[in-house]
Amino acid sequence: MPTRPVLLDCDPGHDDALAIILAAAHPALDLRAISTVAGNQTLPKTTLNARRICTVAGIEDVPIVSGRAAPLRGPALVAEDVHGESGLDGPAFGPPQVPLTSTDGIGYLRDMLRASQAPMTVVATGPLTNIAALLLSAPDVVERIEEIVFMGGSTAEGNTTPYAEFNMIADPEAADIVVHSGVPVTMCGLNVTHQALADDRVCAEIAALNSPLAGICVELLGFFASTYRQLWGFPAPPVHDPVAVARVAEPELVSCELSRVDIELTGSYTRGATVVDRFARTGREPNARVATHLDHERFFAALLDAIRELSTRDPNREDPR
């Protein structure tokens, strides 16, 4: 079966960790590189966390590169209240064995896109700083990107301010550049990712795999569940970021509609909001696919398969912790 070449830009982050696992193991995807950005934690921490996850999951053949440490404008915003001091609080990780390939993430992605024989898909699960910086510095790569699928935004309320989701408010200017870049864009916002609740049954099925990686995933979800319960009263944690990966790997799992999306840049109370014109009230041309519905059962089956696949690649592998 032909695979789709993918670049994953992320800010690990508990749900980013699961996105890395799904992107690396899904048979429909060819994960070419992982780039990191400041977001859920500072850039050094998100980069370390990407290396940690790749180490425990045995993902040793995918380059990891670090990108921007701050948004295009203003200071960096981190989500320590959600992801903890390390950005991956919960499990105990040993020293990562997977190296960092480059600290020039923007240049690395630019060169990879220019050298690729076929256009590549960018999946972004953190603030869109790296992707906007790439488009600004190398406009020619627009033709080398098949699609940008990002986790961020919402068709309704936000989770960091009343109307802004974290990845959008962390760098609204970058999000504005991406949605108006001319590259086909798909937005997987809170309205769909809040359908991806990792409830007790899901966690039990992961635990039943009885592997070191599965154990780490359960611990990650346990910590994530506690912060979501405390901050928002959720009964189970939503695993936002793998939804964007699933949309690329199995598009039928994530239903979308064509809409106009704009980013609020100046509102006193609404900066970072994704303004989604679902009913064409403004008369402006649609510029994005907006995810609306998730097939919960099939989504978590795909995620479970990915954890199982990475757990069984080397049955003699010792617990890397």
Automatic annotation (TrEMBL):
<dbReference type="InterPro" id="IPR001910">
    <property type="entry name" value="Inosine/uridine_hydrolase_dom"/>
</dbReference>
<protein>
    <submittedName>
        <fullName>Purine nucleosidase/pyrimidine-specific ribonucleoside hydrolase</fullName>
    </submittedName>
</protein>
<dbReference type="Pfam" id="PF01156">
    <property type="entry name" value="IU_nuc_hydro"/>
</dbReference>
<dbReference type="InterPro" id="IPR036452">
    <property type="entry name" value="Ribo_hydro-like"/>
</dbReference>
<dbReference type="GO" id="GO:0008477">
    <property type="term" value="F:purine nucleosidase activity"/>
</dbReference>
<feature type="domain" description="Inosine/uridine-preferring nucleoside hydrolase">
    <location>
        <begin position="6"/>
        <end position="300"/>
    </location>
</feature>
<keyword id="KW-0326">Glycosidase</keyword>
<dbReference type="GO" id="GO:0006152">
    <property type="term" value="P:purine nucleoside catabolic process"/>
</dbReference>
<keyword id="KW-0378">Hydrolase</keyword>
<dbReference type="GO" id="GO:0005829">
    <property type="term" value="C:cytosol"/>
</dbReference>
<dbReference type="InterPro" id="IPR023186">
    <property type="entry name" value="IUNH"/>
</dbReference>
